[in-house]
Write a structure and sequence with these properties.
The protein has 432 residues and is α+β, with helices and mostly antiparallel strands. It has helices at 2-33, 38-43, 54-61, 99-103, 122-127, 192-195, 362-371; strands spanning 63-80, 84-98, 108-119, 143-154, 159-166, 206-216, 219-228, 248-261, 264-280, 288-305, 312-322, 329-340, 350-360, 382-395, 398-408, 419-431. The longest helix is centred in the N-terminal third of the chain and has 32 residues, at 2-33.
């Protein structure tokens, strides 16, 4: 236990050094423009401020810069493979350009984004579970071109066209409030989709595009076509944008409707996809199946208002399913509650608790048990995670999010039995 505490203290010291270093640099840059007080700095919208009015002038000209940092510390305190902790970090940076203001192309927006990830994964190193306890880990821990895309709005914004290189998950199957949790099972898409098809989520981009029809401000239908290219996510391919390695196309469709039951906002969406790529059978790797499919349903609904449009008790739910002939990770279910602005004096804080389950294909379990001739028995049918946390907004640009996760049946997806694990997390988010 002493070694665990010592390791956690070391990782926390690393996280604190990164944060305080970034905060110190921001304070110096802010002070160069004018003599800010601590209170001024903590009340401004972004950590680096308005750049002596530069941000406002750029926005008026049509350019909006965005950058930030996410750091996630996770310590496996009991259960799993062994005990220990890891820190995973992400820096993101980019801009949006209103080409109507810049070039007279009304309704056209250029989006450019990059992402740099570093660190290690507590789930792989210690807990042994599938749903990573640090959602910010993955995609090769490298610098990536995330997005270079153009969006065109037509007919009074009733039609949106988008195309370029970007993660299709930016537009499909998003789980509202999902990234207020640290576990990747919540943040912010059904995880069987990228694990069981050519789907991609942030930060892995791909070539493609979509058409979105906004029937009303509360209802839309959208469909797209995207390249399926497993090589984009490989380590060392962060800057790759060529189509070499493509295996097919993925076609998603999604419909959504916003509700206002009793004056309380909510949104419900359903979607499906078809991937034209050949994929190996889940029970026989040499048996290629022609194409694969999946679908999902996602919803969020405010149940109670605490006063104000964004403060209240919100329920989130999700169910998803992937082709049983090819998917090892066949489906997932999720449910959770989040109290946003739980206290009048803390309108931007949140308290949440949720449960997510990753379901393994029973065909794979049956085949594995049969091939083991009795040495593997009673394999789990899924892995579950319960997470609870408190998001404290220290400043408009700074969120501190301590959390605890209870991982049930870790080892399911590697056909192993590990003891249920307790994981303690600390996430921080900075907006530069």
């Amino acid at each position: 236990m002493f070694m665990i505490a010592q390791d956690l203290s070391y990782k926390f010291t690393k996280l604190r050094a990164v944060l305080l270093g970034g905060l110190g640099l921001a304070a110096i840059s802010a002070g160069a423009a004018q003599a800010y007080t601590w209170q001024d700095w903590m009340n401004q919208k972004t950590m680096t401020g308005n750049w002596n009015g530069g941000r406002t002038r750029l926005a008026a000209d049509g350019i909006d810069f965005t950058a930030g940092y996410v750091g996630e510390l996770a310590s496996s305190a009991s259960g799993g493979k062994r005990q220990g902790s890891d820190l995973a970090s992400q820096f993101y940076y980019g801009f949006k350009a209103d080409l109507g203001k810049l070039a007279g192309l009304n309704g056209t927006t250029l989006t450019v984004g990059f992402n740099s990830r570093v660190g290690r994964n507590t789930s792989a190193d210690y807990t042994g579970n599938k749903l990573a306890v640090q959602e910010v880990y993955g995609a090769g821990e490298t610098t990536r071109v995330v997005e270079i895309s153009l969006t065109q709005k037509l007919f009074h914004d009733q039609v949106e066209l988008k195309g370029g290189f970007y993660p299709m998950g930016n537009d499909f199957a998003g789980i509202a409030y999902g990234c207020d949790f640290q576990n990747v099972g919540f943040c912010a898409h059904p995880q069987n989709l990228p694990n069981s098809s050519g789907w991609s989520d942030n930060p892995t981009g791909k070539w493609g595009g979509r058409v979105k029809l906004n029937f009303t401000p509360d209802a839309y239908l959208e469909a797209g076509v995207y390249d399926v290219n497993p090589t984009y996510g490989n380590p060392g391919n962060g800057l790759k944008m060529s189509t070499s390695g493509s295996t097919g196309a993925l076609i998603p469709v999604e419909a959504a409707y916003k509700t206002h039951f009793g004056g309380l906002p909510g949104e419900y969406k359903v979607g499906a996809y078809y991937d034209t790529s050949n994929a190996a059978s889940v029970t026989n790797a040499s048996d290629l199946q022609n194409g694969r499919y999946g679908f999902y349903a996602i919803g969020d609904q405010m149940l109670m208002s605490f006063g104000g449009p964004k403060r209240g008790l919100i329920a989130i739910a999700m169910v998803s399913y992937s082709d049983p002939s090819t998917a090892l990770f066949q489906g997932s279910v999720l449910g959770g509650l989040e109290a946003r602005g739980p206290f009048a004096a803390r309108p931007n804080d949140y308290i949440n608790v949720g449960y997510v389950r990753a379901i393994i294909n029973h065909r794979a379990i049956d085949a594995k048990e049969a091939a083991s001739h009795g040495t593997l028995t009673d394999l789990s049918t899924g892995e579950g995670v319960i997470e609870a946390g408190y998001g404290f907004q220290a400043a408009p640009w700074w969120i501190i999010h301590p959390n605890v996760q209870y991982v049930m049946d870790p080892g399911t997806f590697s056909y192993k039995h590990y003891a249920n694990a307790w994981v303690f997390g600390l996430e921080t988010k900075l907006t530069f």
